[in-house]
Records
---
Amino acid sequence: MNNPFATTLNMQRQAWEATADLAEKTRIAPERTETVENIDVGQTPSEVVYEENKLELLHYEPMTEEQHDIPILIVYALINKPYILDLQPDRSVVQTLLEAGFDVYLIDWGEPSKLDRSLSIDDYVNRYIDNCVDVVRERSGQDSINILGYCMGGTKAAMYASLYPEKVENLALMAAGLCFAGDGGVLELWGGEEYYDPEAVTETFDNVPAGFLDVGFALMDPVANNVTKYVRFYDNMEDEDFVENFARMERWLDEGIDMAGEAYEEFIRDIYQDNQLYENELYLGGEHVDITNIDMPVLQIVAEYDHLIPPEASKPFNDVIAADDTEILEFATGHIGMSVSSRSHDELWPQVSEWFEERSNGTEVESEPETPESEAADAALAEDVEGDETGTEDLADGGSSVEIDSSPDSDADLDVETTDRADEEIAERGEGDIQEEPAEPGEMTVDEDVVEEVAGEEAASEIESETNDLTDLRGVGQAYAEDLTAAGIETFDQLAAADVAELATETGISPSRLEDWIEQARER
């Protein structure tokens, strides 16, 4: 039986601590408000080298003495500003590519006016993108260039590559919506023909307002997007780095742009509802968008926990195009985390840069042989606060599961889990023999018979203890355990050795909670 006096004193202590915490947060609130209102984004130096209507083509200042022969043109979506790819210096796709020696261009679409209501996908692909590609080709002296398309920009880039294959040297598609045959996630379901009429929206608004689109994205996870992220902001208000990251994401979210009405109708009807691109039935301006013309090297970059464009809405596209040199990088993050999380820049983007480098200096790269199929256990659940289109948690989503598919005609995938353990150690521990069904987040299950056959009971015991149930710790529920796992913390030993400030930034969990859990982990 608990001592009632001790219980009363403990409640009083907690009340005093909460009051002191509130007083401190109240003291620093004006300073943090100023940070949120004056945060800088898109700081990599650039110049506008081409303009057309609202569009601006940006060329970034090189960061290396010499650049690769073939430049990269980044094609972004129509519904947000593109500085999410240049959010801050240490988490900037643009800067990462520049540091890898590339000459980088980016299309900033601008915001359509009422007069642009009739702009179609044909206008964006056959006029705007083609004009920008020609500018980059002329400036670089190259007949064909690299294109990196993100989200809807990836969809348009795929269309462009099928119409102008001679102008595209290498094509990288990042979280691109390409295949909608029932596995395209919630947005595909909501946008289904039986539920949704895009023309009803455009008849009401002409151009589709950014606020209308934002509400739809927020409703995909209403609690996380409207409650949890602000609770975490409060909990981490003392952490200036966290506040700055939060402010950058909030600014990007608040600065969404409207979408031209005609293009919106076509995108929903032709791409989502009728799946015309994947079915090779799409026409733009009367010309067939024949995806069998896509015969250049193709890299797909997909996010394992992307609820806007799930991997299944992208990966099958490689099976229906003509390219022999295809590859898939599947990373354990979300739709926005792949461009802004620190783990993505540490682990994913060096691989993307290497893929471009191998194909941007006049050398041919042979496709690799087929890789035996292997299923890996889930490393983590998706990031939960800001989510993909909705906030700072993408800055902290963890894991680094990378799927590589380099075979042209095979569905075989190789999932390589690259956490803190080295590749050699993973190979030694025989992690290719993983269960048929994926494990629950934070768990790993193996075929015990196979383990004992290969390495004996001692090895089986070693692998079984590879992860711990973090929910055994006081105060760690399943949601918190998933956050920790997403940040690469799977064992008590890893948690015990973690840096509180760094882990708080990665997970959005308050430092005081983490200190308590770390102390518990050390006691174990």
---
Amino acid sequence: MLLKRPITAFMLILATLIFGTIALSELSVNLLPEVDSPTLMVRTDWSGAAPREIEQRINEPMEAVLSTVKGLENVHGFARQGQSIISLRFKWGQNMDLSFLNVREKLDQIRFSLPEQADRPQLVQNTASDEPIAVLGITSLNESNPDFNTRLNLKRWTEQVLSRRLEQADGIAQTVMVGAVEPEVQIRFRPEALNLYGVSLSEVESLVSQANLFTATGELREGWYRYSLKIQSRIQSIEDVKDVPLKTLGTGRVLKLSDVAEVRLDEADPTSFSLVDDHEVLSVLVKKEYGSNTVEAYDTLLPLLEELRSQNTNIGITVLEENASFIRNAINNLLQTLLYGALLAFIILFLFLDNWRTPFTIGVAIPVSIFLTFFVMFISDIQLNIVSLSGLTLGIGLLVDNAIIVLENINRHRSGTDSIFEAADLGTREIALAVTASTLTTISVFLPLIFLGGFEGAFFRDQAWTLSISLLASLGVALMILPVLITQFQKKGEEKSAMFGFNRFFDRMRDRYEQSLQWALRRKALFLGVMSVLLVAAIYLFMLVHKSVLPETEPQQLRYQVRLPGNTSLYATQESAESLINRLSSVKQEGQSIRVLGGYTDQTNLSNLSDEGLNKFTMSIPVDGYDMADRVREEMEDYFQQQPGWTAQPLAVQNAMDVLPSASQPPVLFRLVDEDRKQSERLAGRLQEKLRSAGLDIALAKQYEQELDTYQLRFRTQNLLQLGIDEREVIQYLESLTRGSWITDWNRQDENVPIRLVGYDRQIYEPENIVLNLNDRKVPLTRLASIERTSEPEQLERVNQTPVLSYMGDIGFTDWWWYGNDVRRALTDFARETGTDVKMGGAVMGIASLLSDMGLLLLISVVIIYIILSVQFESLRHPLIILAAVPFAWVGSVFILWITGISLNALSFMGILILTGIAVNDSILKVDFMRRYFADTGDLHQAITQAGLHRFRPVVMTSLTTIFGLIPMLLPFGDGYAFRQSLALALMGGMVTSTLLTLYLVPIIFQWVEGKKIKN
């Protein structure tokens, strides 16, 4: 035992503080836990293909094969113009590395059954590292409106210098460019010249491709040596492309490509753009390595940028957006609240305890427990984030509870022993088992989180471990370190003194409590009736309290995804974005810039990919508080009322907070499952009538309502035979005339530049105006094919290999809470009448599932507590008395959330969960004293009275240390305070009612239960 080795105890304290400090500096820092959704995404590009064709020829066969992968829970496919996206969601806990290999194997099996024109399917794993830690803006300082050559040089410098330097740095994995100009060699052929010299497009493609040949053909051997033989490409420059020989003319002259076509280096059709205010910039998304520290990765980035700025004075490098500062500030603020909370808890100790030395002996428990927790977090690879650190902050008051109980028991024995050493030894041994059981009871409330699967388990695991470690550390300090400190710093026979007269004031409060308790015992029915009314009111308010996944923060930025009509080109999308920027420039925050990313910005990010397109852009508008945010929203509404066909969808402000799998979805989705989507569309109106007939005023709006106009060509076979024209020749001619026909890639230094065959005149807007110049004839396309203009959805959706048509319902979580069962019954009746099944989805389902799982966790915790208490008390009745007060403790949490307007979210629910353990602890002390006193004396009334007198001080003391330790978390300063407030308010509100109910409700229930037992 350490009582005989005080120097050892002091060295343990010193070692804990030293190693804890080192561990704190080395802990991985992030805003929220890295919750990696078990999701894989398969993307297949097929340029120019219509959504229906992609669905039939790519999605359907691919989904059939991929659905056989082990552990797969859901297959969600999208088909849109030029692209197929299939999202594979696996069960939580699935080995995603193994699943990745299994999916890759299936893709290799099906690859050759896909259309030849389609690209190879790309498999992307969704991780927390998909979101960029910083967005850089690259501009030319010499030109305000750079031309093609300047933009191309910026792109090459970014790709060859900036990206390579960054990706070599520790913690940085990848950079993605948005708005980069892509060069290509365009061979603009002249049909008249081709016909004049009798050269076909196929011959041009073949000869250019052969000129770019680079291959190893074998080796030469000479005695002991051998030499490789390779053929080098003849294309080293644009001039080499122009000089590609096509044929030898009758005069002996060699016909070159430049004789029949114009060859030049030009900009390829862009797929993305980036704007800062109304200026076009090259944006670079910087992504960190998986599991690396966000703050450290960003700190590594900054000196590299400074070095590059000094070396390239003509290039501007600006940090447009970064998350590290917010994370650093949020964590630092939370660490400050941890320190302030510990100081306030120490002040409460100083007021309550008898002399000036005692608070310091107990106060040691706080820093030692915290720093020991930091050390265990480091060796256990637990992140330092808002959730884990908030758990530690919430436990500040709990860290001294064990020390207070041990101290009081030691003081109780001091008068009957010869030395402080003997009192410390006897008092600690006597209370050790009870304190250990009490600590394990508290831990049992949230320890099940460690074993909980799904999102909740991944999100709260760090917090559960942190709280468990800190409480076990405080238990160790109370049982081993505290007795040593008492023997070293307290003196035998030291007189008690009242700190600032506080104890005299507290004694008067205890006397008044005794009087009020007697009054309540005489009016049990009235008191229980009032408590029941409060409980019913809390249940009603629970229905009304706003519910969300995470707390809502004061807006500093608004993000919108803007969708234009489906056929809008990227150039028109960019012009529209510039127009909207000019409209909003007067209402945004001064000194800040509006940022826009449009087109296909990040093809590796699953959360963004399914919502990107050439007709879409994402806008980030800086604001300062709620008033400015409301003005921006009003301006947006006014602008979009003037733009028919435009839609704007609000997005999460910070993707790092958007951790729930369904958080990015609309509130409620009704998915009509039917092979015939036209039938589903006709039934949508009937579904809405069905909902309204059930008393549900829900308006339905199609989720993907935009449509694309396409031209469908059907060849006139007889005319083709009469003219001697091959179908493949027509297809090749049209491909070159419209989007350009890819021939080969020219390896230019460190980049591959496509060489593309394109029509000389690309200004064709109607297919009826196309005239093909083939075989010395000018043939209108209308003679070779019938042309029909049709309309089809921009995006087709499939869920679990079945076509669906999704409709958004304007119903919030509160309405769903009240009327969810009515909606389900209406959908069941609708399916029975029409034969069309309707599946539910959306963010509301995610929140409901989250609250349901958390409620189940709460129930499991209560059952575990009951089991522990039954073993501790050797009784099935007394644990029920303790647990009866727990629901009433939740009353304060619900009331304070309703009064303050703060939502019931994952973090506030965690506060309520921790409150359950604290309320149980206070009740245990009360019931244990009453039970033992009643067993010794047989006087029930006296047992309750004495328990009130003796336990009033520790109950109020532990409650005040917890409440005062949480006060700094309520202060609205610094980044991330909304997270702190949600946790602290839920716990503080419940602590107030928990303390009152422990002091009054538990004695009343105990008297009622034991009184009935006596009568029986």
